[in-house]
Amino acid sequence: MKTKVAVIFGGVSVEHEVSVISALQAIQSIDSNKYEVIPVYISKSREWYTGDVLTDIENFKDLERLLKEADNVLLDQEDGNIVLKKKEKPLFSKGVISAIDVAFPVIHGTNGEDGSLQGYLELLGLPYVGCDVAHQQQVWIKL
Questions:
Q1: Please, which residues have CB within 8 angstroms of residue 129's CB and are 6 or more apart in sequence?
Q2: CA dist., res. 141 & res. 143, Å (int)
Q3: d(Cα 65, Cα 13) in Å, to the nearest integer?
Q4: pLDDT digits (tens, 9 = 90+) for 122-136
Q5: Domain span at residue 110?
Q6: Residue ranges of the chain with pLDDT lower than 70?
Q7: In what helix (H) or strand (E) does residue 81 lie, and over which residues does it extend?
Q8: 4, 38, 55, 94 from 58: Cα distances, Å
Q9: Are 73 and 85 in contact (CB under 8 A)?
Q10: Single pTM value for the model
Q11: Nearest C-alpha neighbor of 123 from the set 94, 98, 103, 99
């Protein structure tokens, strides 16, 4: 069974577009024989999305269309797991898209490199790649 990796990118900082490019490069570099990559895009309006449509840089040229094709999601805890759920779930469904084993934040700038996202992931109990909250904050203090 493959480890499910949520690559989280986008965000609200001025480095939003750089984050998209960095994340798509990371997604292409992850070994698909070992890992199932789940792209998770955070829009500038703070909405979270997922879907294969997010893995093609060309689709970001028409952001309005892209967001209509992607699934608007939330991270949630369910039965001891962290899952991506549709924000507006179908009537007779839990709306779960996928469980997540680990997060790989690829967010630059505010709310990404300052430990905010890592703090949220820690509250959920979701392991993540990179520095913890305290080390993120120390980096900013040193600057």
A1: 102, 103, 104, 105
A2: 5
A3: 22
A4: 999 999 998 767 655
A5: 3-142
A6: 90-92, 132, 134-143
A7: strand 81-86
A8: 25, 18, 9, 32
A9: yes
A10: 0.88
A11: 103
Domain count for the chain, please give it: 1
How many whole angstroms separate alpha carbon 50 and alpha carbon 6? 9
The token pair that represents 38 in the structure block? 């789940």
Give the CA distances from residue 139 to residues 109, 133, 136, 143, in Å, rounded to whole numbers and listed in that order.
Answer: 12, 10, 5, 7
Cα gap 91→123, rounded to integer Å: 28
Separation CA 139–CA 69 (nearest Å):
37
Rounded CA separation 119/76 (Å) = 15
Tokens standing for 132? 């913890």
User: 3-class SS at 42?
Assistant: strand
The CA-CA-CA angle for residues 2, 74, 70, to 5°, reads 80
Give the CATH number for residue 116.
3.40.50.20
